[in-house]
Amino acid sequence: MIGKGFHSNLLVETAKILFFISLRSLALFAQDAIIARVITEFQVSLRRDLFSRLLYRDTVFYYNVSCGNLLYSCTSAVERVSKLLYSLLHSFIPSFVQFCGVLVYMFFMSPPLTLSLIGTMPLMLTTYNLLERVLLNSTKRLQETAGALSSLLSDTFRNIRLIQSYGAQKYMLEYKLKNILTQLKSQSYQFEYSKAAIVPIITISYALSVLVLLLMSAYLVGRGSLSSTTLITFVSSIAFLIEPLQVIASNAVELRNGEVAWELIRGFLHARPQVADIGTDEPQNVKGHVEFRNVCFSYSMEKHVSNETDYVLSHIQFNVPAGNSVAIIGHSGSGKTTLLELLSRFYDPLRGSILIDGVDCRNMKLASLRKLIGFVPQDAPLISGTILENIALGEIHIDMNRVYYAAKAANAWDFISELEGGFSYDVGEGGCRLSGGQKQRIAIARAVYTDPRILVFDEATSSLDAESEAAIQSALQVIAKNRTVFIVAHRLSTIQSVDLIVVLEKGRIIEFGTPSELLKKNGKYAEMLKAQFSEASIVEGSFW
């Protein structure tokens, strides 16, 4: 018969078991919750830091990096690094600690058997390392191809109208996408084969270890150096040794993926800018006097260019008094846009300097310099969002009076008022819901909103119809008053009222002066003007 104390003892033991199971479950929950919190905080912090670094990178950086790699680094690469951290905290480190602990325990039981077991590990580690190298190379190639795929998709969707207009869908699908997918498939096969081989190698190594262990055990038992009890305990401990090894092996893929992704991210985080923001000056009450002093520039960014024919701009030297307008003209490739980009410090000169009110631009804080300059490019880029967000770009506390003034000055008030929602109207991605003329006027309003002392127009009306161009030219005349204005113009009829003209040819200034002075010289400017227009159209078409 069962004793009276049996049931009470059973209840006590059952309660103990439930208590320890519950305690273990709570501990696992706490562990997972803490790790999840750490991973989430890390992921958010890494994305913020990476995005911050990318926002402040110079133009040279973006010319050398594909959009696909940037998108990949901010999305998938961050995810992979997070998985690496999770694998380390949740699996790899605990398994490594367990492996070392069991190995030490086994060594105290039987040093000879433990040493024989360790002796089989170099073969396993050598084979594993070879596979890891293959896995690492496969991961790098997969990452590069994934970046190329992201670039293709981004480029395709951004230019979908162009592709459809030329019926290039089949070309994009059968040639561009097919090539990338073929590479991706081949690389994925190699990656998966390498990944699949890891666990079998661990298993084979385990079998070899057990075989060596049995042979050594038979020898030690035969000599009486090892008891059967110790042998059984030792062999049983092997299971606790193999388990963490299998966990480590199964996490090898995550570790390698994360390592490659981290190398990509680290490269972006620690890339040294070629246009360094090391200036300390924050100029006040700037008048807008601009001087280019013997400026030389080459896209090679090498300080010692042996051949001056390699310069994009060579020995550029001219003065623009405050409040004057200057037109930069020349054939395509003469360096007009590059000259304006140097003024805004998207690049730095290799030689010479650019001064505003006598202060070298490189000595100014970059943010302070760019607040002085309102830049209106030819393509009038807009960000996804409202008209208000585009006019007051970068502003958190928006001054609506300045917004209204900028819209009216840019001749944009009327069409904005007619749109549903007015300034809250969503322009769509890249401004796709607006016409070219409307986008251009919003871009001008954006430049006016910051109240810059220097205005830069890079062929701001060259792609517009006559009506839109007339509206924008009318706006430009208003906002250019009391400001220093740089204009790159293709149609020379639009610059007859400027104060100064710079004529560029192959990166050099070949003529500089007022329009009337250059006409009297009967040089390159006069030749270009005669080639474009008759005397009557020059007078009638003049906006400046």
TrEMBL record:
Domain of life: Eukaryota
Keyword S-adenosyl-L-methionine belongs to the record: no
Topology class, membrane: Multi-pass membrane protein
Domain ABC transporter: start-end pairs: 290-531
GO CC, alphabetical: plasma membrane
Positions in coiled-coil regions: none
Transmembrane segments: 85-107, 113-131, 196-219
Span of domain ABC transmembrane type-1: 1-257
The keyword Iron-sulfur appears for this protein: no
Subcellular location field: Cell membrane
InterPro entries, per database record: AAA+_ATPase (IPR003593), ABC1_TM_dom (IPR011527), ABC1_TM_sf (IPR036640), ABC_transporter-like_ATP-bd (IPR003439), ABC_transporter-like_CS (IPR017871), P-loop_NTPase (IPR027417), Type_1_exporter (IPR039421)
Record key words, sorted: ATP-binding, Cell membrane, Membrane, Nucleotide-binding, Transmembrane, Transmembrane helix, Transport
Gene Ontology MF terms in the entry: ABC-type oligopeptide transporter activity; ATP binding; ATP hydrolysis activity
Protein name: Probable ATP-dependent transporter ycf16
Source organism (scientific name): Galdieria sulphuraria
Lineage: Eukaryota, Rhodophyta, Bangiophyceae, Galdieriales, Galdieriaceae
